[in-house]
Amino acid sequence: MSLATADVRAEDSGVASAAVTTAQAGLEAYSTAYWWSAAFFVAGLVASALLYRPGLPTTDPDPAPVVHM
Fold first, then answer.
1. Confidence of residue 1 (pLDDT cuts 50, 70, 90)
2. Is the CB of residue 46 less than 8 Å from the CB of residue 34?
């Protein structure tokens, strides 16, 4: 914080401090959103791994007739 407001005039120090704090809050929000999205991707990966069935799908040797209109 002191480095970010080092060359600021005394009458502008409040505004500069608020700007730096707001920027830090914005970065924290992006970081939080990133980790939540990573958690959702991992949850999707786990769900996909549990539901995945390897091999070829089985086919019915005597299927019912299909009518296309």
1. low
2. no
Residue 52 lies in a domain: no
Which residues fall within 8 angstroms of residue 13, CB to CB, at 6 or more apart?
5
If phi > 0 it is left, if psi is from -120 to 50 it is alpha, else beta; for residue 2 that is: alpha
Contact assessment for residue 16 and residue 4, using Cβ atoms and an 8 Å cutoff: yes
Residue 38 lies in domain: 10-44
For 3-51, the pLDDT digits (tens) are 777 888 888 888 888 888 888 888 888 999 999 999 999 999 999 999 9
> What is d(CA 33, CA 37) in angstroms, rounded to the nearest whole number?
6
